[in-house]
Every structure is written in structure tokens, then in C-alpha cells.
User: Which sequence fits this backbone?
């Protein structure tokens, strides 16, 4: 069952909901914490990001937070504008359409190159099969953020196994934006349906059918994603926040 709107919005101050920091570089951990917070509704697209508050909430100095925000700004996750300060990216219709069109072009090319390479390497899809298996496990646990993260990982792996490093370099900057978009979509879609879409993509690739793969890509990347009203959903979450006693 899709996550309810009321259950989706979390208190901005409740940073304990963020995944604990692990043994990656501190800057990378802060980047991932901010992305996860946005994908799970701790922050919302368009929210102001305050360096000092994030540093205090994550119990780190402002230096790694400042560097993390620079990385996120370079990837379009946060936008720094005069008079408005640092804010999270908006997920508006126009921006979303641009992201999806670029995704579809890159991933269709990746799929085509993967199918060509499969002629000489029948085990090429093994990494994708592993991601899909992990998706099923995450959905069974009802771990919506992990489903969103693995959704992005499936498409990153597809680009990676194409062997086209330029394609992967072009796709990679989109990955964190996609994790946020996918995270918001898990509040509005059944987790099982998200997994099923990846089953269909993997099946068409396994069968070596480029026409079926292109159709599955279009449905998954354009049709299903565009059917979700991100702007309306975010606005409803904001309304719940204004009515919240805290």
C-alpha cells in the first residue's frame, strides 16, 4: 500500500530519522543524509537549507556541510539565489519533463549498447538481476527509501554495463535528483508496482528485444512518472505542515 500523505511528512527538526553516518568520507555522508532527507519528506523541494542547522542536526562542523552543499549545488539538488539563499530544487512540471527526456535518451542508448554487448557476454545482466532481487527484498520490508535508492541504482548499473563511460558520466549527475524524485513517488505509488516495472525492463533486456525494451523504457520513465502530480503532492504536504501543532 502506498504511504499516506499524512505519514509522509516528517518534522524538519527530527533529523534522527536520517540514516546514521557510516565510514564513507564525511562530506559524502552529509550529501547522502541531505538527499535521503529530501527523498523521505524531512525536507521538501523548495525548502530553505540552513548550513548551521544541518551541521547541528548531524553533529558535524559546518565545513563538511558547506562542501556537501557545493556538491549538491553543482548537481542541481540545491539552488543558491540572491535574497532567497540556499534552497532545495523544485520538482515542477517543466523541470521534471526536461530531466525525464534526458534520462530516456541516455538510457535508451544504454539499453541498445547493452543488447549489442550481450551477444558476446551472456552474463552481462547479472548486476541488474542483483539490483532487481534487492528491490523485491526492500519492497517486502516496506523500505520506501531503499526502493527509491535501488530504483536509481538499477538505471545507473544499466548505463555502467553498457561500457560507454561517456554515457555514464552524463547520467551520473542526474542520479541524486532521480533518487529524490523516486523517493517522492514512493509516497504515491505501490512499492510492488515500482518493482514490477523493473521486472518488465529486465525481462525485455533478457529476451534481447530492443523494441519491447524501448516501449518499457518509455512507459517506466515518461508515462508512469508524468502521471504523478509532484507539485500537488508537495503542496498537500506543506498544508499538513502548516496545520501541524509543532
Assistant:
Amino acid at each position: 500500500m502506498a504511504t499516506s500523505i499524512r505519514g509522509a511528512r516528517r518534522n524538519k527538526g527530527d533529523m534522527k530519522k536520517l540514516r546514521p553516518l557510516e565510514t564513507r568520507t564525511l562530506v559524502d555522508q552529509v550529501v547522502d543524509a541531505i538527499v535521503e532527507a529530501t527523498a523521505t519528506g524531512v525536507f521538501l523541494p523548495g525548502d530553505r537549507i540552513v548550513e548551521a542547522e544541518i551541521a547541528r542536526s548531524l553533529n558535524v562542523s559546518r565545513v563538511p556541510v558547506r562542501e556537501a552543499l557545493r556538491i549538491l549545488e553543482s548537481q542541481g539538488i540545491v539552488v543558491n539565489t540572491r535574497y532567497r539563499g540556499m534552497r532545495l530544487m523544485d520538482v515542477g512540471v517543466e523541470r521534471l519533463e526536461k530531466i525525464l527526456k534526458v534520462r530516456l535518451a541516455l538510457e535508451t542508448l544504454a539499453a541498445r549498447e547493452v543488447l549489442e554487448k550481450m551477444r558476446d557476454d551472456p552474463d552481462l545482466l547479472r548486476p541488474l538481476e542483483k539490483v532487481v532481487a534487492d528491490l523485491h527484498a526492500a519492497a517486502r520490508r516496506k523500505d520506501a527509501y531503499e526502493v527509491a535508492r535501488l530504483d536509481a541504482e538499477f538505471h545507473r548499473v544499466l548505463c555502467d554495463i553498457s561500457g560507454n563511460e561517456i554515457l555514464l558520466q552524463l547520467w551520473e549527475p542526474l542520479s541524486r535528483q532521480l533518487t529524490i524524485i523516486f523517493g517522492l513517488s514512493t509516497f504515491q505509488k505501490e512499492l510492488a508496482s515500482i518493482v514490477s516495472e523493473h521486472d518488465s525492463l529486465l525481462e525485455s533486456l533478457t529476451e534481447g528485444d530492443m523494441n519491447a525494451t524501448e516501449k518499457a523504457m518509455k512507459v517506466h520513465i515518461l508515462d508512469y512518472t508524468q502521471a504523478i502530480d509532484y507539485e500537488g503532492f508537495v503542496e498537500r504536504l506543506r498544508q499538513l505542515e502548516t496545520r501541524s501543532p509543532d
